[in-house]
Inverse folding.
């Protein structure tokens, strides 16, 4: 599943919570430094993919006339170009491999910075990080739907996309994340 920037802090929180609750990882300097590192790596990964997709869109825009003449499907061409440029932008397209790589990077940084200690294999700790990401991905769509339904039932109608709607949505979203144990 593709991650969007607004989800990065929530994913980072979920990683820190799961490491804390794993029973075999000690957070030597607390939760916050772990959250910060996980968020930084997640944001960096998202921004690399965004840069790649931006470049692909530019290429497609530059060749719009040729594509129209040859009746090329824009979505298919987008994917083909993205696939071709992915290595140059250091983006792993397989989400499973990508999140595994991201888990390794987060774990390596946490260890090198002396933020965690663990009494099990490195792979087991990496799996906690990976599983935290998967758990978040499997939950967030249901949570978004729950929040949207709550907003629909408000007495005062909020306009989607308005600053007020976004503020209420974020507050309710975080409340739902806390209920599900995905946020401290």
């Amino acid at each position: 599943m593709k991650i969007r920037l607004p989800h990065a802090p929530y994913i980072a929180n979920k990683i820190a919570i799961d490491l804390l609750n794993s029973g075999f990882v000690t957070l030597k300097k607390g939760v916050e430094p772990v959250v910060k590192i996980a968020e930084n790596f997640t944001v960096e990964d998202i921004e690399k993919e965004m840069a790649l997709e931006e470049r692909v869109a530019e290429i497609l825009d530059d060749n719009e006339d040729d594509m129209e003449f040859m009746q090329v499907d824009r979505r298919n061409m987008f994917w083909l170009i993205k696939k071709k440029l992915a290595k140059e932008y250091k983006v792993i397209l397989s989400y499973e491999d990508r999140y595994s790589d991201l888990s390794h990077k987060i774990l390596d940084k946490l260890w090198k910075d002396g933020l965690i200690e663990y009494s099990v294999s490195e792979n087991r700790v990496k799996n906690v990080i990976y599983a935290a990401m998967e758990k978040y991905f499997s939950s967030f769509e249901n949570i978004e739907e729950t929040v949207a339904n709550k907003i629909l039932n408000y007495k005062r109608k909020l306009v989607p996309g308005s600053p007020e709607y976004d503020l209420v949505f974020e507050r309710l979203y975080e409340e739902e994340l806390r209920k599900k144990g995905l946020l401290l």
About this structure: Strands lie at 25-27, 116-118. The mean pLDDT is 90.
